[in-house]
């Protein structure tokens, strides 16, 4: 049973028990909700009973446009594709969690269990690339939600996008922490021969125990290193995304991660510091309560030091790196380790002059099953 109670009284005795294989502890209220609800024990059930495991649901969406544009001065690309909404990897720090609020869903557990697949992603991209005024520049895939999350095994939307980008000789960068990226090594190798692709594998920590709670359904750290080896062995240029660095949780791993990724074949690296926009703050604080209550205060105080006294600073220029002595220390450690292991280059340059517009697709029956929007299945 649920009751409307003040947030600070949500769990006065003990935090909620985290669910195995999920990052968020609960479904936090989102910013568009009128009421705040929290679970309390009313005496009718045993608080020791583990909740049933949450199943992942996938809804189908027909996207009108698939390219998202941005003019952010601290992002090195101006267009991106996210073939999925929500992400089953369940990374507790994911800055994309608040986007689920626009769907009326929670940025907490809903974000990692109620997903949306943009079933017509390839056709939508084909239409946009075929426009007469289209200007070529690098498309990033996976900037918000991971394009190689587990449901990609079934939907294969990312693979379809790569096939189209190879057909049109269009440059693309990928950011992922999914080991499934190695499945597409055949396409990535062909793109690499034309200098049309760069893959950035996110590695936050080599500590399997921390990774299991921090990013529970992402590939284990050793699998990500193996993916780097497979890709670089096939001639695909790979960089490492050390993102985010979390004080007192993953910051001790900076040097170890860069060393391991360099030995696996990575040739570039960049980092960001933890961001807590909107509801991500609540998700992260609940996670600290559940997994690291002993260091919660230290972690939050350090984040405030990095963010000018707040838990989040959205300003361009400081939102990715932070400010102050902690930010300077992280930056110095990263740069020193990157130079030592040959990862001083932040980005991998790609070819933009080979593009050829795609061939038009034959007309399809718009009344088919894929045209039905938001069809759910388990």
Can you characterise this structure?
The strands form 3 sheets. This protein has a 7-stranded mixed β-sheet with strand order 4-5-8-9-10-11-12. Strands 6-7-3-13 form a 4-stranded mixed β-sheet. Strands 1-2 form a two-stranded antiparallel sheet. Strand 9, helix 5 (185-193) and strand 10 form a beta-alpha-beta unit. The two termini are 25 Å apart. The chain has a single domain, classed as TIM Barrel (Alpha-Beta Barrel), CATH 3.20.20. Helix 8 packs parallel to helix 11 (325-340). It is built from 11 helices and 13 strands. Residues 1-12 and 365-378 have low confidence and may be disordered. The protein is globular. The protein has 378 residues and is α/β, with parallel strands linked by helices.
Could you list some keywords that capture this structure?
single chain, 378 residues, alpha/beta, TIM Barrel, 7-stranded mixed sheet, 4-stranded mixed sheet, 11 helices, disordered C terminus
Please outline the helices and strands.
Elements: E1 2-3, E2 38-39, E3 57-61, E4 68-69, E5 79-81, E6 84-85, H1 109-113, E7 114-118, H2 121-129, E8 139-141, H3 152-155, H4 157-168, E9 172-176, H5 185-193, E10 197-202, H6 208-214, H7 221-233, E11 238-245, H8 254-264, E12 268-273, H9 280-291, H10 296-306, H11 325-340, E13 376-377
Parallel strand pairs: 3-7, 5-8, 8-9, 9-10, 10-11, 11-12
Antiparallel strand pairs: 1-2, 3-13, 4-5, 6-7
Helix pairs in contact: 2-4, 4-5, 8-11
